[in-house]
């Protein structure tokens, strides 16, 4: 029997996990049970398209057995199992190396919790076990295999016998140390509570033999110890439950269990639609940006279930790009189970659901903006840029959906305000919505161009994000008010409107300006006297559509 090494990355991760003082060791059970449930799902799904396979619900379950004397905890499932190659490739290599990179980058901070919330799955078993044994027989195979590992040193695989298809994971629970107790993972009550906490919605029964004292049959006062198999999970998925039965904590638990993010959700949206299209959904607005959000690896999408069975992990068609930060799941009875990915794209039901979901997200965000302003601003700091990109992309097609969700810093009080708030603050004589672009609020404040507008008592929106001005150009008008850059030639303010500035120039000035224009040829098109300056001697202004800031950005873009 050959001993094999883990891949380098896996080895490092294992070491890190085993050696770290882990605050939530109990999650190993959630991980192993989820894997077992996934394995049963795989058979279920196969049976839908394979006529030779019958899925009889009775035969599919997960069983947890603790043996205090042997110090073992066994998790057995009747799922699809693993052959030799699966054991090698699935348990010998860590799939999500991205989480390792993340952990390394963040080690200095709260590294310890991250692993748990990421769920590195199978490997978490080593937090409580010194030896992990996996005996598995894959569907369609007679030969079973035993995989065994004592941690970072490597693992062995050898042929084994097993009567039924499925997997058995045997954990040799560690001995208690001075500061760490492991005995609890062999205690019935503790296992029961962990399972209830994390795995209550698992759709297959999780069984355990529970001991109790029972009246001996045929007697009236003689008790005996008995052991009875019980189902520990309620199995009803959270999304099928009534909103009123659920607490915030339930939704947060589901978020963590599903690995939607390593943060806490900022807001959840529970939808139970039964109009033109019937579906349930639980959607989350995360609190912070996923670490890979702006990388190529980030994939938007929601989990898609057809009548309770997972058919796709990330269905991108359910979310528009501008809401790509939303996490969650959708379950619909209207979808056919064995629908292919290609067919899904054209599915009318799916399109209806997507449209419906988009409007649910929008109204949830609007109500957060209205009623929970502080929360909304947290959200906006993380994802506002995405909304602005949404306004700009697709030729402004989605501006109506998104414009009311935008916030910009206003010159008054330096607070974030909406376009609607801006317009309702406008004095009657103000014609335009003014904005100024710059690197930062401090820089913008010093711009000479802002003085005249501010002196009139008009508010100015500060655009500090590259995308801001481009997005606004797509909106063009908000409530019939056009946007105007403070650096544009015509500010539409009374004082400088009626008189043509060049006419009032004296001959002397004229000569000077002409000379200056020649000197600055190619840099400016004209030098003229300005009425808008207060404390600054000079400023730049533009006449066209493209402002100075936009020009800078356009010039910086690769051709
Ligand atoms: P993940 O579940 O995120 O894929 P894990 O580390 O939890 O990552 O598991 C790795 C892989 O090992 C799974 O994707 C699956 O292919 C396989 N696996 C783990 N446990 C089982 C099991 N009980 N039955 C069948 N396959 C399993
Ligand atoms: Mg897993």
Automatic annotation (TrEMBL):
The encoding gene: htpG
Coiled coil feature spans: none
Annotated region described as A, given as residue ranges: 1-341
Protein's UniProt name: Chaperone protein HtpG
Lineage: Bacteria, Bacillati, Bacillota, Bacilli, Bacillales
Family to which this protein belongs: Belongs to the heat shock protein 90 family.
Functional note: Molecular chaperone. Has ATPase activity.
Annotated localization: Cytoplasm
Keyword ATP-binding: yes
Family matches, as InterPro entries: HATPase_C_sf, Heat_shock_protein_90_CS, HSP90_C, Hsp90_fam, Hsp90_N, Ribosomal_Su5_D2-typ_SF
GO cellular component labels: cytoplasm
Quaternary structure annotation from Swiss-Prot or TrEMBL: Homodimer.
GO MF annotation: an example: ATP binding
NCBIfam families for this protein: PRK05218.1 (NF003555)
PROSITE patterns associated with the record: HSP90 (PS00298)
Acidic residues bias (residue ranges): 493-506
Amino acids binding ATP: 31, 35, 77, 82, 96-98, 117-122, 167, 341
Alphabetical UniProt keywords: ATP-binding, Chaperone, Cytoplasm, Nucleotide-binding, Stress response
Pfam families named among the record's database cross-references: HATPase_c_3, HSP90
Region (Disordered): 489-509
